[in-house]
Amino acid sequence: MSRRTIALLGIAALCLIAASSTHLAGGQPQSTATGTMSAESQRSLAEEYCLACHNDAVKAGNLTLMDFDLEHAEQNAELAEKVIRKLRAGLMPPAGQRRPEESALQAFAATMESQIDGAAAIEAHVDAPELHRVNRTEYQNSIRDLLDIDVDVTGILPRDSITGGFDNMADALTVTPALMQGYVRAAEKIARLAVGDAGAPATMESYSIPRVENQLDHIEGAPFGTRGGLAVVHNFPADGEYTFTTELYHYYTGSLIGSRLPENLAGQQVDISIDGERVALLDIPPDLKDFDGGLRSDPIKIQAGPRRVAITFLAKFDGPVEDRYWLVDQTLVDVSIANKAGMSAVPHLKSVAITGPTNVTGVSDTPSRRKIFTCRPTDASQEEACAESILTQLARQAFRRPASPEDLESLMNFYREGYEDGGFEIGVRLGLQAVLAKPEFVFRFERLPAGIGPGETYRVSDLELASRLSFFLWSSGPDDELITIAAAGRLREPGVIEQQVKRMLADPRSEMLSTSFAGQWLQLKGIQEVNPEGLTFPNFTRTLARAMRREVELLFDSIVREDRDVFELLTADYTFANQVLAEHYGIPNVVGSQFQRVDVTDPNRFGLLGKAGWLTMTSQANRTSPVKRGKYVLEVLIGTPPPNPPPVVPPLAEPAMNGELLTVRQRMEQHRANPACSACHQIMDPIGIAMENFDPIGRWREVDSSLPIDSKATMYDGSELDGVSGVRQAVLARSDAFIRNFSEKLLAYGLGRVLDYRDMSAVRQVARSASEEENRFSAFVMGVVNSPSFQMTKNPVVSERQ
Question: How many CA atoms within 13 Å lie on the side-chain side of 286?
Fold first, then answer.
């Protein structure tokens, strides 16, 4: 069939569509028994439903199918993958146009997938970055695993850029001279903390709390009987004396917040505890001014090492009435409102500065010293051999491979230099500092084997595969067991890699899949960045926001730990809550700051769609946003982002127009009537409208602007949505799109690079292999790990390097 004939058919089809209704047409193209289509049926469907818009003349969506060979989709895979993504999500044909039966659309997509995947089976697309730096999270985790010490490096290393939704993408992990200087400074600081430093000078380290932080409740990690404040793990470099300076919040007039408390709540005190034991109790003078410098403790003797430091207030009140309403200056004050608005009725901690050490007496045994000093010389003749043993083991784990003689010689030179200055321990510290500053620690090197030509693909070594595996599942380097197996060349033996994946998923370090992978895929960081209006939503606090985020992380973690079907992310009739979140949801019998698993009886709260976190971060400060909520479902869950908005978007109508109250739905309908807004909004809005029973902070409601909420809507493909349950069913009805999107995100995260259309066959293979294992989480992981993309790489040709 010539292009001219196809064009004429397209114009005829355009006329037919314009004259027809939106009901399904009869005589649908027939799919084959295998779920794919014959070439004739493909052409028939394309001519009737696609070419009217996607021809050279109309070119809807800047896409034309005039030259597209339906029998050889693999020859234009980039275009084919765009079409497949739209069809799997149900976005084509567009809303308002005639649609064939859903089975025909899915068969059309499956046929193109089959053609592309068949070509990929012959020659898989394999790509890998030439240089992959560890990101800030991976660096911090690697330090923790290497030295058994938690160090916050956010003040030393800059935040990593995000590309493709993740911060571990190699292309975005650029290297600058300033960054490398940051790694050198971090190496020095961490080595001193880990080894300890009896000659450490007195320094000051500060911790601060935002003004809007809720400080009325007990915080996790603090002694019982206290409220507010902060609890942190602080690394003390030596045995000695340390002082604590606490700064409190003041009113803008300069007077202390809490200076006008009723008599029964007067006498507020700051409690300072180390590892749960009180070491100081400071009285708060009610006349303390903001220029007085805060409260300063006497010097306190503390042993070196990581210690749980809690600076809190003694709880002076209890009971449901006094917690909320207090009489201040003859006025009944709602404490929750006052707290949010920055007018708290009780003292609130602003910052804590820890200064020291002074009067140093030495360095006590610490977890990091036990990890480092695996041998102890009894006389000078044993010192060099012991140092070499220590640095050999440290380099092995830090470099993620056995240390070479050249590695050891370089490190021992640093040891000898330090030994000359201060003896054995100083020598080891300088050697450790060199380990942490080496490129082998900061970068994930994969070396080119001999005899591999330009453009040739090859398997990475077992040690390099072990490193890929550990950074995928742990966001850290491989442990001793994994290095030992890989160094012996046994990682690819039958069943070994499966056994290692199972072990690693059971390890607590795999929680990074929840906090890092799921946290970024589901955009949970946005929960901490929202600021609902304080007087409208006084119960929203940073404490509640953290609980919202943690709820989703724990839900995902339960899927990982219990190896559940990933569709439970949508359907789970259980969740995780502490007291703050449970009260927000109206769940009874949950007390304290610890999270616990609770059953959910309200179907509206099942799975991700019922979670307050994403509902809050997709709202405006004073109202819901059906657009943001609809976009989130399309982009994050189905993997098909809507088109970008036009350059000039008219504002949404005010809540009251001409004296008439309007719901958000009514305001959106007026907005959507604008032709410039209609095309995008008819895709997103129905999903968001169906979620309108959730208010801007995720609470259930029945009215909006004093009017009943109508949460029924019609989705872009004509299916009916009845509230959140309808949205959930709509996503489940697009199970292929949801699973493909999940597989794509997991593969990209595992590879540490942004995927493109050439990777979609690998994505579908991950999804297919998981479907054979009831979509259990471990099956997706094994699909990624067993893929050629994960186990192989490519020697770029010269043009690809430029």
Answer: 12
**334, exposed or middle or buried, with CB in 10 Å at 0-12, 13-18, 19+?**
middle
- For residue 239 the two structure tokens come to 């045995």
User: What tokens were used for 149?
Assistant: 């010490």
**Residue 126 near residue 789 (C-beta atoms within 8 A):** yes
Rounded to a whole number of angstroms, the distance between the first and last alpha carbons of the chain is 41
Q: Is 278 helix (H, G, I), strand (E, B) or coil?
A: strand
For 699-724, what is the mean pLDDT? 90
Q: Taken in order 127, 133, 136, 141, is the CA torsion positive or negative?
A: positive
Report how far residue 738's alpha carbon sits from residue 730's, in angstroms, rounded to the nearest whole number.
Answer: 11
The angle formed by the CA atoms of residues 102, 105 and 110, to the nearest 5 degrees, is: 125
Q: Are 452 and 369 in contact (CB under 8 A)?
A: no
Reading phi first (left if > 0) and then psi (alpha if -120 to 50, else beta), residue 675 is in alpha
Greater confidence (244 vs 348) lies with: 244
pLDDT in tens, 542-580: 889 999 999 999 999 999 999 999 999 999 999 999 999
Q: Determine if the peptide bond prior to 708 is cis (ω within 30°).
A: no
Q: What's the maximum distance between 2 C-alpha atoms anywhere in the chain? A: 97
Residue 347 CA to residue 313 CA, distance in Å, equals 8
Nearest to 206 by CA among 236, 246, 154: 246
Q: Tell whether pTM > 0.70.
A: yes
Dist. CA 763–CA 747, nearest whole Å: 7
d(CA 504, CA 529): 32
- Chain-centroid distance, C-alpha 444: 22
What letter would DSSP give residue 607? T
User: Rounded distance, CA 741 to CA 616, Å?
Assistant: 23
Count other Cβ atoms within 10 Å, centred on residue 108. 26
Average pLDDT over residues 261-278: 85
DSSP state of 514: I
Distances (CA, A) of 254 to 214, 259, 737: 21, 11, 57
Q: Are strands 269-274 and 277-283 parallel, antiparallel or unpaired?
A: antiparallel
